[in-house]
Amino acid sequence: MRRSLRTEVRDGYNLIWNIVSGRTCILFCLTALLSAAHPVFAQDVKVCVGRQSLFRAIGETGSRFEYEVPPEAGQQRQQHGNDTLLVQWGFNRGVFKLEVHEITLAGCFGRGTLDVQVIGAEIKLEREKFVLCSDSVEVSFNKADFQAWNLVNKSDPPRKPAGLFISRPGAYELQAHDRDGCLISKQLSVIAPPKVNLGKDTMICTPGFTLYALQHNTNPEGTVYTWSTGESGASSRLDVSDRPPEERVLYWVRAEFDGCAVSDTVVVLACNSEDAEDLPLGIPNTFTPNGDGDNDVWQIRSLANYPNAVVEIFDRWGRRVMTSPSGYPEPWDGRDTEGRVLPLETYYYIIHLNDGVHIKPMLGTITIIR
Is it true that domain 279-368 has CATH number 3.30.750? Predict the structure, then answer.
């Protein structure tokens, strides 16, 4: 038995249902309560991708209802009793048929169907991961399919990008209203460009020394490195033991990721172990700043004869960690210029006597032991 029923949808549109009854003792209809306002024509209900819709079956008192939603359409769950169906629509577009089955207290049964058209334009990004290689990047997508859009900063919500230009790394969501009124969203991310930092110009007094493109490497996986030495990793092993002590060697590294490239250079002054050992001042090469009162500072007693002498200490990255006042009045205690205790490592020193006689600085290494 086939009947046509006129029922009213919540948004004020009329909907014609075809109801098929297995026995004449059943009569029910399916009313769609939509979460978004869309016109309803004949037996066609339109919903937006990714949204929720609420459907209610009307039948005999005490009836039990069972629903069928195509698995490719979305996820279903019943709520508010067995007569209500909540559908979370997925992102597959097309027409999907919902079915409801009624079993009455008397054992009668019936079946109703409803065609639901899932609509919504698709955001097509030029890319979903951007590298912030300049001051800002512009998000490009198929704007012609949408009438309004907005970018949301998911990492730092109070900060809103200017239009479609992003100037800070982070996670973002592009929200756009298509011409059917559907709100479509797409996730994207903006990452910082690769970095390189070879540190300040330094010297090497050991046969082997490793230069790192970045001390604490946070560059994205897949960053390509190119060194002046011909190496291609995130570090380069140097050996300047065969170079004259006065020679200054320029090294460079280039890092590239997704078309974004940066570079840095460092000048390395070569020295050798003999230079360090043959210094005329009797400079110790170790000290133990552990607070036991024995050899806690780096004492260079002969510098008392050079009131204008200045001592500079560098770490293996070429960063200056200590510069003494003229005359080296307070021996170094193993701390940096901000008072932080330095780790147990070998450091490099440059001593400028500034006496008008010794023009070249004295170079060597000093190791902290605890």
Answer: no
